[in-house]
C-alpha cells in the first residue's frame, strides 16, 4: 500500500499497550527469561523483546517521538532500560493494571493534552507479524481513512487462514462508499468450531485489536459504552501532562473497576466502527504458548529455549 505523504506523519500518534500481566504465556516466558516478567518484556523471537519489536514496527509509519507506551508501575524493573531511551513524555505509567479500556483512554487523553484532534493507532505489544512494512502500510491506510472520515474508529481485520476458535472475529456488513472499509455487524469472541467455520465461509475477519481513530472519536466511543470510566478520566484530564498528573492518576486508579476494551466497549457495536481488511500478512496473537510454538514451527526456527523446553518435556 502507498504510504501517505511525509507531512501527514505529523498528525499521527501511536499508542502501544504494554501494561498487561501476560499470565497465560508465563510458563513459556519464565523458561525464556528465567524470571516472572510479562511477555511484552521478553525476547521470544530474536534478541529484541516483543515491546521493542512493536516499537520498531510502529516507527515505519509513526514518528517514535509521537509513539506513547502504556505501562504499569509494578513492571518498572523490566521496562526501565527501555524508558531510559525514550522521550520522557512517551511513557504512560499506570499505577495499577485496570484493563485495556483504562489503558487506551489514559493514553489517548495524554496525547490529547498535546494534540486534541490527533489521530492515534492503538497497537498491542504481543503480536507476531510476518511483514512489518506491509502491515504498517495498512495502518497508514487507516490513518488516511480517518483523515477523510474523522468520525470513524477503524479496526484492522486479518484475513483468516483457518476457522480459529481462540480469536475474536469481526463480521462485516455493507461497504462504506468510496473506501476499502466495511461497517461492523457484530463481534464473535472465541466461537465454537462449527460457528468458526461458518464465520470463515461468510468472509469474516480475525480481530487484530489494532485500531486507528481520531482521539475525539475514540473518546466518544468509550463515553457511549463505559460512561463512568470516561467521566472518571475527564475529571483528571486538566492534570495530564503537568506535575499534578501522578497524584491525580493514582487517586483515580484506586477507584477504577477493571474493564476490557474488547468486551466492554467494542462488543457494544458502536455505530462509528469500521473494519479495514488486512491481506498478504501472516499474523498471530501470541497470548498462548501453543500459538508461539506454531509460529516458530511454520518459520522453521528453533531457539535455544525451545530446545530446552523439548528436553524438559521428554
Secondary structure: elements and pairs:
Layout lengths: L11 E6 L8 H8 L16 H9 L8 E6 L3 H8 L7 E4 L5 H13 L6 E6 L2 E3 L2 H17 L4 E6 L9 E8 L6 E8 L3 H10 L2 E10 H11 L1 H10 L8 H10 L6 H4 L8 E6 L4 E3 L3 H11 L4 H10 L1
Parallel strand pairs: 1-2, 1-4, 2-3, 6-10
Antiparallel strand pairs: 4-9, 5-11, 6-9, 7-8, 7-9, 8-10
Helix pairs in contact: 4-7, 7-8
The share of residues in extended strands comes to 15-25%
Return residue spans where pLDDT drops below 50 for at least 5 consecutive residues.
1-7
Class of secondary structure makeup: alpha/beta
User: What kind of assembly state do the chains in view correspond to?
Assistant: single chain
Query: Can you count the beta strands?
Result: 11
Q: Number of helical segments?
A: 12
First CA to last CA: what distance? 46 Å
Biggest sheet character: 5 strands, mixed, barrel
**Helix-strand topology string:** EHHEHEHEEHEEEHEHHHHEEHH
Molecular shape? globular
Rg of Cα set: 19 Å
- Within the largest sheet, what's the order of strands? 6-9-7-8-10
Helix content: 25-40%
Q: Please, what is the average pLDDT? A: 92
